Amino acid sequence: MTHDVTQDAELQDLYRELILDHARSPRNFGRLNNPTHAAEGINPLCGDKLKLYLKIDADERVHEICFEGSGCAISVASASLLTETVASLTVTEAEAVIESVTTRLTHGSAVIKNEKLYALDGVRKYPMRVKCATLAWHALHAALSSQNTTATTE
Amino acid sequence: MTHDVTQDAELQDLYRELILDHARSPRNFGRLNNPTHAAEGINPLCGDKLKLYLKIDADERVHEICFEGSGCAISVASASLLTETVASLTVTEAEAVIESVTTRLTHGSAVIKNEKLYALDGVRKYPMRVKCATLAWHALHAALSSQNTTATTE
Amino acid sequence: MNRPQQSSDFGTAIANCRNDFPALKQSVNGHPLTYLDSAASAQQPTVVIDTVARYQREDHANVHRGVHTLSGRATDAYEGARDKLCKFVNATSRTEIVLTSGTTEAINLVAQSFCRPRFGPGDQILITHLEHHSNIVPWQIVCEQTGAELVVAPIDDAGQIELEALFEMMQGKVRLLAIGHVSNALGTINPLRQIIEQAHQHDIPVLVDGAQGVPHLRVDVQELGCDFYAFSAHKMFGPTGSGVLFGREALLEEMPPYQGGGDMILEVSFDGTIFNELPHKFEAGTPNISGVIGHGAAVDYLQAIGMQDIHDHETALHDYMVSELGKIDGIRLIGTAENQASVQSFMLNDIHPHDLGTILDQQGVAIRTGHHCAMPVMERLGLPGTARASLALYNNSADIDRLTEALEKARRIFG
Amino acid sequence: MNRPQQSSDFGTAIANCRNDFPALKQSVNGHPLTYLDSAASAQQPTVVIDTVARYQREDHANVHRGVHTLSGRATDAYEGARDKLCKFVNATSRTEIVLTSGTTEAINLVAQSFCRPRFGPGDQILITHLEHHSNIVPWQIVCEQTGAELVVAPIDDAGQIELEALFEMMQGKVRLLAIGHVSNALGTINPLRQIIEQAHQHDIPVLVDGAQGVPHLRVDVQELGCDFYAFSAHKMFGPTGSGVLFGREALLEEMPPYQGGGDMILEVSFDGTIFNELPHKFEAGTPNISGVIGHGAAVDYLQAIGMQDIHDHETALHDYMVSELGKIDGIRLIGTAENQASVQSFMLNDIHPHDLGTILDQQGVAIRTGHHCAMPVMERLGLPGTARASLALYNNSADIDRLTEALEKARRIFG
Ligand SMILES: Cc1ncc(COP(=O)(O)O)c(C=O)c1O
Ligand SMILES: Cc1ncc(COP(=O)(O)O)c(C=O)c1O
């Protein structure tokens, strides 16, 4: 059963404690009343559906951010981590984080400043789940670009 | 080359002299001015297209019959032989001939009174050509049933 | 509940049939594959795969239009498959068997050729809350096009159509009822004979979405009395890209062609075109010849085993699955209709179905997770989606045991 | 004219490729098969047959919707084939590659989704007298539906479009030009670049029926400048039931979906449905997964040989065929365009093509006879049909020799 042990380890790499914790108790969960920016992310494959709300002032800085919706552990944890990471960054800084996170998840190389986000690394072995992890980040990009459209993972 | 000899023989069985003769010089070829019955036969596969015209009087007998159109040697010869066979038969007799010819061509057993029609027997080895041989007969049936529709071989 | 003993309980044909499916002999992620996703698409027996490959190697040519030997062979094989399909659903005549690319195209054909020319404002198309998107969206589109209204009969918490409400809605200006045979999301088998009888009393023609009917049940369109019956080859162990619309001849006759092209015409000229006879009128262009031939081989395969044996086997296995799932802490069955095919949705605690799917896959267990193309069902039940294990003739009790083991592991991981 | 020496004149890939096609190794009616009917449907190389069979044995599951391993593999293979097709015609983006059941469905899609919502009385759809029924009837149907008018550019006796007349007709209220790349009946290669340039000067979008283009020519939709390009897998050595509509993204974006069903939606509710993004918006229901994967394998096969080599080989062989046919008493070539693909129609004395077909088949030579789904061409030339020999990459000069021998025998029989 060494086999099963490896697999357990792999699964536990995907579902790390930090991920499970954020999935169970997502941070910044809720709705902003007067967001300056917002976007929705839909993953038609598994029905993940997230809404991001941001308040960005004239200083081009994220003053408030939260999200609501439902999704799998990976997408919810990723969104929760996103809100923690992006809060109080400038738009430019946020775009840079989006870039490095999505690159890291899809090509596996980029360095990420916020170490917590490495918790998402386990996803890279599960190509079908990468879309779950990137969903919130795509939605954030859409929100920042004021493309008030829906982002999808297709 | 015994092989080729057999095949030549088979092909010559299909294209018997009588068939080639009727195909080259179809009998009763042309159009009736005031037909009492008429029908068209179409074989979409090869573009055969025949029109049958009949004059049937109160005595329920075929007084005049002719056909026009174009088609392969088999369908034209078959139509030509049909007009010779059916001329002056009663409708009931004609239906009986249709029945025996089409049965013979498709199941290969029925006896046909008019011996000339056995010239069509060569077709039975060519399933894809049976429709050519039966086309005129289906059209005749349609004409007699006063179904003034188009008969097809599909 | 005891494990059903395949070899003794049922005919040997079905007991041994798992060996006929090469895909089931593989390992996935280091475990023997446990394929519980046949409702999405079924695996193919060797005989279907080989029939298609042999056709390609020996007999392929275009159909209908050729005088040469290969074209004759291809046409015979293709039209022979139509005959098999005709018998399979017991249609009156082969002219009632329109070959399509699948259930979805078959339903769109009816929406566009049957409804669109004759429906208008004030008319209603009646469906149920249980339908697959393929039996919803085509009607939404044609309603949008014609001004007709889509009305939806409710379902109860077990996933059963509320018959009284359905019958009540038939009083209206319903001009077509479109209803599934078996729900792909919840497994519910609808009481079609009763429903169709009622619909016909109101002169409402009935289309049955049979995509999930054909793999599990003996289908007899004359006994059902339906006017249209749509199904796909790939759900019944045949190839993708092939399906059937059965339609009653009188209705098909009245309908204009759906697509234009080669083969569906008798004569084309710029003054006007004469369409071909049934069923060819509805089959434009080169058909999926190899797919249809494979579909015919799947029919032969199913009939050799026998739909009754298949049904008995699946019922016993489904019972076993329900009882074993029941032993897992935190399992909640979704879809508990009295009359259910071997398709079972469930939730495990508050684990999102997608996470369950990954964890099970890691153990070689393939289930489907999500909305199963039946979002309205999910919304009705207040769920983001479900996990679904669907059984086919080739599954056995070991599959169920591996499913439950894998679920236990998921429970441990999510603690 | 000398026999073209395959092995020396061309790359060895094409010289040896005949061996890749198992169907060509058989005898028919006691003679080695001489397959000259590829324009109707082409044979498949072993690699295509095996790719499809291996997929079925190892990787099959439904695409897009699954989280398990097989579904992932199936989706990767299916979407990978789309990428290959995208490169094959040099589309800008994979979103421009809509997978259909074939050329016919692709053209119907444009007729219904592009034309039907926006054309009306006074508008014209322009085609040519050279078209296949699949590029005529869909336009007749949509004209009937919308009140638009179908106008037809004439051809000359050689089977070439009369360009001046065509350009003249563009002055009118033409809102779409639909034109073949290569005529299946006569082999004519149309000067598309010139025609499309002209059409675009009048802001007329152009659909190209590429069914007969892809097997013979390198296709580059950006170089051609066309707005739509439709083709079928089975004409290019792939499976039946699979085809492509290339469409420029800007146009596809504006078009409503064609069929409704699973996979083409993002969200379904009874209040309204949100359609999926391109290209999925146009792909309703379970697609022909294995067919598309086979189509991708056919692309790989063609590209390994190289379209230029294929074209050179076919041109040399066609020249040889024309010269050998010319030696037969009573042969009349039909279709003598200056720029012609390796598709040749002909008549022999007054022997009806259908009789010729039977006599040749008896000698193992498979040709097509009849109207080739191009009745207007036949009517224009005053013929009931023709005999047609169409060449593909796997044909060789021995095929031509057997054709001419068999024709000599037909001449003798009809004396
Ligand atoms: C020129 C041309 N256009 C369209 C078609 C239709 O293609 P399909 O039958 O594969 O849809 C064909 C072949 O039949 C053709 O040769
Ligand atoms: C109940 C039901 N209806 C319709 C469909 C659509 O079938 P297809 O995708 O083969 O067209 C499916 C399967 O996807 C189904 O399960």
Number of helices of chain A: 5
Overall geometry of chain C: globular
Q: What's the β-strand tally of chain A?
A: 4
CATH class category label of the largest domain in chain C? Alpha Beta
CATH class of chain A: Alpha Beta
Q: Can you lay out the helices and strands and say which pair or pack?
A:
The complex is a heterotetramer, with two copies of chain A (154 residues) and two copies of chain C (415 residues).
Chain A: H1 2-14, H2 17-24, E1 37-43, E2 48-56, E3 62-70, H3 73-86, H4 91-107, H5 127-144, E4 150-152
Parallel strand pairs in A: 1-4
Antiparallel strand pairs in A: 1-2, 2-3
Chain C: H1 6-9, H2 12-16, E1 27-28, E2 31-32, E3 34-35, H3 46-59, H4 69-88, E4 97-100, H5 103-115, E5 124-128, H6 137-146, E6 149-153, H7 163-169, E7 174-180, H8 192-201, E8 206-209, H9 221-224, E9 228-232, E10 243-247, H10 249-254, E11 265-269, E12 272-275, H11 289-305, H12 307-326, E13 331-334, E14 343-348, H13 353-361, E15 365-366, E16 368-370, H14 375-381, E17 386-390, H15 397-413
Parallel strand pairs in C: 3-15, 5-6, 5-7, 7-8, 8-9
Antiparallel strand pairs in C: 1-2, 4-10, 9-10, 11-12, 13-14, 14-17, 16-17
Helix pairs in contact in C: 3-11, 4-11, 5-6, 12-15
One pyridoxal-5'-phosphate sits between chains D (102-104, 132, 134-135, 180, 184, 209, 211-212, 232, 234, 373) and C (262, 285-286).
Description of the molecule:
The complex is a heterotetramer, with 2 copies of chain A (154 residues) and 2 copies of chain C (415 residues). Chain A has 154 residues and is an alpha+beta fold. Chain A has one domain: Sufe protein. Chain: A (Alpha-Beta Complex). Chain A contains 5 helices and 4 strands. Chain A has helices at residues 2-14, 17-24, 73-86, 91-107, 127-144; strands at 37-43, 48-56, 62-70, 150-152. In chain A, strands 3-2-1-4 form a 4-stranded mixed beta sheet, covered by helices on one side. In chain A, helix 2 crosses helix 3, helix 3 (73-86) packs parallel to helix 5 and helix 4 (91-107) runs antiparallel to helix 5. The mean pLDDT of chain A is 88. Chain C contains 15 helices and 17 strands. With 415 residues, chain C is of the alpha/beta class. Chain C starts with 5 loop residues before the first helix and ends with a helix. In chain C, the strands form 5 sheets. Chain C has a 7-stranded mixed beta sheet, sandwiched between helices. Chain C has a 4-stranded antiparallel beta sheet with strand order 13-14-17-16, with helices on one face. Chain C folds into 2 domains: 6-32 and 307-413, Alpha-Beta Complex (Aspartate Aminotransferase, domain 1); 49-304, 3-Layer(aba) Sandwich (Aspartate Aminotransferase, domain 2), CATH 3.40.640. In chain C, 39% of the residues lie in helices and 17% in strands. Chain C has helices at 6-9, 12-16, 46-59, 69-88, 103-115, 137-146, 163-169, 192-201, 221-224, 249-254, 289-305, 307-326, 353-361, 375-381, 397-413; strands spanning 27-28, 31-32, 34-35, 97-100, 124-128, 149-153, 174-180, 206-209, 228-232, 243-247, 265-269, 272-275, 331-334, 343-348, 365-366, 368-370, 386-390. In chain C, helix 3 (46-59) packs antiparallel against helix 11 (289-305), helix 4 packs across helix 11 and helix 12 (307-326) runs parallel beside helix 15 (397-413). Chains in contact: A-C, A-D, B-C, B-D, C-D. Chains C and D meet through helix 3, helix 4, helix 5, helix 6 and strand 11 of C and helix 3, helix 4, helix 5, helix 6 and strand 11 of D. The complex binds pyridoxal-5'-phosphate (PLP) (2 copies). One pyridoxal-5'-phosphate (PLP) sits between chains D (102-104, 132, 134-135, 180, 184, 209, 211-212, 232, 234, 373) and C (262, 285-286).
